Amino acid sequence: MKLSKAVNIDDLRPQFLRAFEFGTVQLERMIPKWPVNKPAPIFTENGIWTRPEYMWTDWCPGFYAGMMWLAFERTGEKEWRDNAEKYTRALEHRKFDRDVHDLGFIFMSTADRWYRLLEDGDPVKQWLKDILVTAGTVQSFRWKDTGSDHYIYSFNGPQSLFIDIMMNIRVIFRAHQLGGSRELFDKAMTHARTTEKYLIQKDGPRIFDRDGLTVHEGIFNPVRGEFRCLSTQQGYSPFTCWARGLGWAMYGYADTFVYTGDAFFLDVAERCAGYYLDNTPDNGVPYWDYGASGIPDEPLDSSAAAIAAGALWKLKDMAVTRRSGDVYRNAALKILATLTGDEFRGKGEGILAHGVYHRPQGWGVDESVMWGDYFFMETLHEVLR
């Protein structure tokens, strides 16, 4: 990305406001088709929200309800709060879900947003606290304890370490913060260090050893525990940088620094941000994988850009050392300026166009995706306030 001059947020504010308002209109239109007693959609097909039968895991309802909280926080409208509460209450049972690694996605955008709005002493706040502590504790049960490297393992099993889980250890940190055991904090921190060790590359002699390049998956021996190889589920190869995974790493490590105060994690977030800034097209939106063979004819992934913009906006206020806070601020605004333009305006029922779910499988390619819409709205909300 070229950042030749400062970006004036006042010039962009009307455009950002229109984009957020468009998002609330699109979200309002979804509710009759996707009511509280119906599972949330995942991505659009030809612009129409869908939930395919070939589900890996049910990881997106928090984004759907989370956007309702964002709409309420921005507008103050009671109808948005009523819907947000209703859809969040419907997720409570997921706090016991031991089959997914996505409880952070489900509860940090819903229960935690609600919790932060309430005054101390409110009985609902205690109920939400119990949900968050339970969800974080249950997420920590996915603990690979063999060998010398330990982590929260993916839904694929104890052998599998996903970069996505950096976004889900946030609920483990949050559970500890709200009164859960010290073991929760230690597990989340250990997971972050193991992930950096194997999935965040450093400059080195091999062709794919570039500082901040992020790999999707590490495979370990499930019995003895030693590392075996790099892998990917949604990227182009185990040795290229899957764009959405890079966004998860930027955001997840920035939040890990907030929860721990450990400058090591801030440096990891900056390394990943540096890779993003140095290798992303000038409009701020990456191709779905930085090493895909067909570039420039490969699909872009706007969802990766929305996540990255949110991470960069966080980094601007931290004690960064690799680049200035102004660099991160201007990069976030430049990405949002692109995403709020006509080219990326949602087609059909979506909010943000040109997202990608799973390019190798052909799922949700060049469509709106639920997490892309959520992080787009979340970042706009943070910037506008």
Order of H and E elements: HEEHHHHHEEEHHEEHHHHEEH
Q: How many E strands?
A: 9
Helix coverage percent: 40-55%
For the largest sheet, list the strands in their spatial order. 5-6-7
Q: Any idea how many domains?
A: 1
Average pLDDT, all residues: 97
Tell me the name of the CATH class.
Mainly Alpha
**CATH fold-level topology:** Glycosyltransferase
Fraction in beta strands: 5-15%
The geometry reads as globular
How far the N terminus sits from the C terminus, by CA atoms, comes to 25 Å
H/I helix tally: 13
Unreliable stretches, pLDDT < 50, 5 or more residues? none
Helix vs. strand class: mainly alpha
What's the main sheet like?
3 strands, antiparallel
**If you compute it from the alpha carbons, what radius of gyration comes out, rounded to the nearest whole angstrom?**
19 Å
CATH architecture: Alpha/alpha barrel
Structural features, described:
This protein has 385 residues and is mostly helical. It has a single domain (9-384), classed as Alpha/alpha barrel (Glycosyltransferase). Helices cover 48% and strands 8% of the residues. It has 13 helices and 9 strands. A 3-stranded antiparallel beta sheet has the order 5-6-7, with helices on one face. Strands 1-2 form a two-stranded antiparallel ribbon. A hairpin with a 6-residue loop joins strand 3 and strand 4 (151-152). It is globular and about 55 Å long. The model has no long low-confidence stretch (mean pLDDT 97).
